[in-house]
Amino acid sequence: MHLSFLLSVFVFSCIFIFIIIVVVAGYKIIKKIGEGTFSEVVKTQSLKDGKFYACKTMKQTINSLEQANNLREVQAMKRLSPHANIIQLHELIFDKETGTVSLICELMEMNIYEYIQGRKTPLPDQTVKHYMYQLCKSLEHMHSCGIFHRDVKPENILIKQNVLKLGDFGSCRSVYSKPPHTEYISTRWYRAPECLLTDGYYSLKMDIWSAGCVFFEIMSLNPLFPGGNELDQVAKIHDVLGTPDQSLLQKFKQSRAMHFNFPPKKGTGISRLIPNCPAPALSLLYQMLAYDQDERITAETALSALDQKQTFNIS
Ligand SMILES: Nc1ncnc2c1ncn2[C@@H]1O[C@H](COP(=O)(O)OP(=O)(O)OP(=O)(O)O)[C@@H](O)[C@H]1O
Ligand SMILES: [Mg+2]
């Protein structure tokens, strides 16, 4: 009895604090729409303008508004906006009492993972092309602003009808920061070879690799390299693309404390996994998935390839 009383007092105070935060901040919570490693995302309605927004509240607490403004994600969003294919930050809210920081962003309908999950029939070529074009636009913009994303994956790409916007800038980095980069990087399935095989000697081209994996996934509705662990990730890449030649492996080895040896292997190729893929789209896919980052296509060149009418035999 005593315990249940204490428990209800605790629950009511939590709800009270929560309501205070939301009302003081001027937003009404509608429902939870996403959960990431670092945050929880809810749909909210502004009490000021009546519009709906996504509210991303960080799990990590901080001490001041200045710290909130200095968050990598906030800085990146401010620098990159406005852009048609980048999630717009509407307002930043810092609650002094609890140390929580919330990013009020424009609301999208769903992420690409949710969009293709459970789908049986392939997306029309026109749709794939349109989404890939917008994804490459967002990357071209980011890279030209001197930022790379480091976590391009279906869950971080948001859509609303035909519009695609890149979100989740929590892992991004300046292209001018000197490698090796030591902190957490991208989700395993979308991780480029240079991220897997060097001790942090990667740069903006890693985003193009990840975008290539997404390209395959929205065409085939299956992940391209679903590795179970880091070693299996490399093996899955080699199964399809084959092992790289010795000179490239040598380049990787120079920046890796642990040495590795891969018995030469010829890959099965991508076309077997996606038989109906038009040749120009397949060629672009290969250029985005070039093992050597120096040979990998830039976002800008990928865009002009996507601009060509024949990429998908459509206009
Ligand atoms: N603006 C938005 N509109 C609609 N849904 C959103 C929006 N922003 C985020 N979401 C949803 O919430 C999920 C988590 O958001 P986000 O990826 O930004 O958080 P995170 O904690 O940084 O994630 P991660 O685990 O990838 O690091 C997204 O996958 C998406 O489904
Ligand atoms: Mg995310």
Summarize the structure in words:
The protein has 315 residues and is an alpha+beta fold. The chain folds into two domains: 28-106, Phosphorylase Kinase, domain 1, CATH 3.30.200.20; 110-306, Transferase(Phosphotransferase) domain 1 (Transferase(Phosphotransferase), domain 1). It has eleven helices and ten strands. The protein has helices at residues 2-25, 65-70, 72-80, 112-116, 125-144, 193-197, 205-220, 230-241, 246-253, 279-288, 299-307, and strands at residues 27-35, 39-46, 52-58, 89-95, 100-106, 110-111, 147-148, 157-160, 163-166, 173-174. The strands form three sheets. The protein has a five-stranded antiparallel beta sheet with strand order 1-2-3-5-4, with helices on both faces. A three-stranded antiparallel beta sheet has the order 6-8-9. Helix 5 (125-144) runs antiparallel to helix 7, helix 5 (125-144) packs antiparallel against helix 11 and helix 7 (205-220) runs antiparallel to helix 10 (279-288). The chain is globular, with a radius of gyration of 22 Å.
Topology, please?
Layout lengths: L1 H24 L1 E9 L3 E8 L5 E7 L6 H6 L1 H9 L8 E7 L4 E7 L3 E2 H5 L8 H20 L2 E2 L8 E4 L2 E4 L6 E2 L18 H5 L7 H16 L9 H12 L4 H8 L25 H10 L10 H9 L8
Antiparallel strand pairs: 1-2, 2-3, 3-5, 4-5, 6-8, 7-10, 8-9
Helix pairs in contact: 5-7, 5-11, 7-10
Bound molecules: adenosine-5'-triphosphate and magnesium ion.
CATH class descriptor name of the largest domain: Mainly Alpha
The proportion of strand residues reads 15-25%
The tally of structural domains comes to: 2
Helix content: 25-40%
The CATH architecture category of the largest domain equals Orthogonal Bundle
Bound ligands: adenosine-5'-triphosphate, magnesium ion
Terminal CA distance reads: 70 Å
Question: What's the CATH topology label of the largest domain?
Answer: Transferase(Phosphotransferase), domain 1
Rounded to the nearest angstrom, the radius of gyration is: 22 Å
Mean pLDDT: 91
Give a short account of the largest sheet: 5 strands, antiparallel
> N-to-C SSE series?
HEEEHHEEEHHEEEEHHHHHH
Tally of individual helices = 11
Low-confidence stretches: none
Instruction: Tell the overall outline.
Output: globular
Structural class, judged by helices and strands? alpha+beta
Tally the beta strands.
Answer: 10
CATH homologous superfamily assignment of the largest domain: Transferase(Phosphotransferase) domain 1
**Strand order across the biggest sheet?**
1-2-3-5-4
